[in-house]
Amino acid sequence: MLGHVGHNELSIRPVARFPNNPVRTIDGLHWNILELYRNVLGGLRAAVREDPTVASAAVDSWAVDYALMRGERMLGNPYHYRDERAAAGVAATHALVGQDELYSGSGLQFLPFNTLYQLAADRLAGSLAAADSLLLIPDLVSFWLTGTMVAERTNASTTGLLRVRAGSTTGTSATTAGGDWDDALIARLGLPKGLFPSLIDAGGRIGSLLPGVAAEIGAGRRFDVVAVGSHDTASAVAAVPMASDTAAYISSGTWSLVGVELASPVLSEASRAANFTNEGGVDGRVRYLRNVMGLWLLSESMRAWEQAGASPNLAALLAEAARVTGPVPVFDVDDPGFLAPGDMPARIADHCARHGLRPPGTPAELVRSIVESLAAAYARTLATAAELSGTRISAVHIVGGGSQNELLCQLTADRTGLPVLAGPVEATAIGNVLVQARSQGLATGSLEGLRALVARAFPPRRYEPRT
Ligand code: LFR
């Protein structure tokens, strides 16, 4: 994405897009990381061809996954968090430190694929012995671009190995401190302390492009690679055009990240039991949210239909789903059985049958059922977020791909009884670009100021709740 930021000016456009298809090999599900990196270089080449004055670049991606390194060498292909290997790591970790103790230290929700569990699985498999460092996915890409190893703080907060920030520091610069690596926990879990690189905050400079990289992408200048909210959700939340602190957000894509922004974490037992997370945000904010399964249910269903020889059309299916008038099952989208790739329509039918629900009959009914169930989960999760954090929510922002799904936006308004403000669809890229721009002196001020810029450049579409 090529962004352009100036005084009162913000625009963004895609210069390259490529699929991100994981690969299953005999030992499990992996990311095709070299293919991704090749495409990153191709994208950078397209960007500097379009605008040779590019000031900086920054990387964000999904969280929790990593490459093990020895010196500059990557030891094996990173695993995908949807791989099943981490299950053994969960049991091994909880045998050493209980989940309640983990939560009071890191504030991180329990997800079976959190980095600490994956690392426990690697430890059991003997794969850590040769490694002398670990790089989360965006940090790996930044390392390949610059030769500098760092751990960007918002993404590091999803490892489960970072201490949650105790106090509230809502500063205006991007350098407010978050938590540090929890060395005592790392030692108790039998993980090598040396694996974890120095932390850097969003807004900091990682380094300039390596000469070879600059030559390969045709850049006339070795511009800087900057740290942003490298956890995609952190960048997305930074760009939610929230005007008040009574607004909630849903970053709706493969996952739905549903919650509010806070100045300090909520670490109560009720919060742990509800599986809410306190992830690190840009400028030291707390992303108090819960992972809800997301449009993955829809994209995996489309994939299953395609594999079965059909050629489904998502827009047509959604239009048809909006016209469904009969009852459809509202099911629990968070069933862990939906996590791994597979035949999603069959899994949903099976889940419904096991829970006394009549399974959807047609593809349109299935789509309606997924969207209704997501909206129901959004409403439930927002109510819990409000209660646990003592926030009164007056509006709900939806950003990301789901903000283009009119049925989802309307049903969310209906089920929450709150106005929904939809967009921007590319919130993650916009949050990334804005934090870069601020670090380059092209934008100034607090997140509130940056968000006001987003609201002006991308006015949200409003959905009122229907009675
Ligand atoms: C969203 C996301 C979520 C994280 C999940 C796995 O893309 O980053 O925030 O929980 O992917 O990394």
TrEMBL record:
GO biological process annotation, one example: glycerol metabolic process
Residue ranges annotated for the Carbohydrate kinase FGGY C-terminal domain, each copy included: 248-438
Record InterPro entries: ATPase_NBD (IPR043129), FGGY_C (IPR018485), FGGY_N (IPR018484), Rhamnulokinase (IPR013449)
Record's GO cellular component terms: cytosol
SUPFAM superfamilies: Actin-like ATPase domain (SSF53067)
UniProtKB keywords: ATP-binding, Disulfide bond, Kinase, Nucleotide-binding, Rhamnose metabolism, Transferase
Chain ranges of the Carbohydrate kinase FGGY N-terminal domain: 72-237
Molecular-function annotations in GO: ATP binding; glycerol kinase activity; rhamnulokinase activity
UniProt keyword annotation of Disulfide bond present: yes
Keyword Disulfide bond attributed: yes
A Pfam family per the record: FGGY_C
PANTHER family: L-RHAMNULOKINASE (PTHR10196:SF93), SUGAR KINASE (PTHR10196)
Family classification: Belongs to the FGGY kinase family.
The name this protein goes by in its record: Rhamnulokinase
Organism annotation: Cryobacterium tagatosivorans
